[in-house]
Amino acid sequence: MMPRPGSTGIAVDVGPDAALGVTAPALEALGFDTLWLAGGQLDALERVDDVVRATSRSAVGTAVVPLGVHDVPAVVALRARLADRLVLGVGGPQQPRPLAALGRYLDALDAAGIGPGDRLLAALGPRKLDIARERAAGAMTLLTTPAATAAARARLGPDRLLVVHQLAALQPDAAAARAAVREPLAFLAGVPGYRASFRRMGFTDDEVTALADRLVDAVAVWGDAAAIAAHLGEHRAAGADHVVVSLLPTGAGSPLERAGAVARALGLSR
């Protein structure tokens, strides 16, 4: 079985820093007991090994290993190496008939010994959430509101994990914070699954195309560390088991200094 993410309910994305041997243990020392690697960092699955070797106790999650990028034998080998600390998150393809392709991929993982209890599934829409409930230990979401977290919890039921990834800008200036959020959002808003998710949350096509302030402010949080901590708590109150904060590169201080400020606001930092 997959190890559960850490007990605090708050995790952190290790960010784009290539020096994982420095960043990962520093984040662990701040009190984050689960560290996540975003899909863009998983050009090589050995990056997960790097984080495990650099740390002593944190669970390490993949968000996500995308279907079609790393074959099933490579994922099986990763789990065999890191089973006691790996939180395996996998994601379906952005292609025609994606659910059929996802089903075949999950079948292949089953056949290779990585069953439903060994994986989380990236899921936004109702059909993906149903698959996560039926064929995974739970679901991972991104760019959602606390209200959407509550809806996902209702769809998953009480006995599945729900991991919510939250973009955050430790930046009190609205214009600077929104500019930082729009950088990743400019790409993600063009992905069909995210556009559909935004529509379900009540945003118009024009708002999505323009990356309107209302959309930016709903799917990301910005402000001081206390504001970020409070928003993460809203997701927890709405039913998230774990909230992963992805701190964007904006505001004063280094990435680790910003992470430390958030950890202190959350009461994690010792």
From TrEMBL:
It comes from the Bacteria. One of its GO terms (molecular function) is oxidoreductase activity, acting on paired donors, with incorporation or reduction of molecular oxygen. InterPro entries: Lucif-like_OxRdatse_MSMEG_4141 (IPR019922), Luciferase-like_sf (IPR036661). This is Probable F420-dependent oxidoreductase, MSMEG_4141 family.
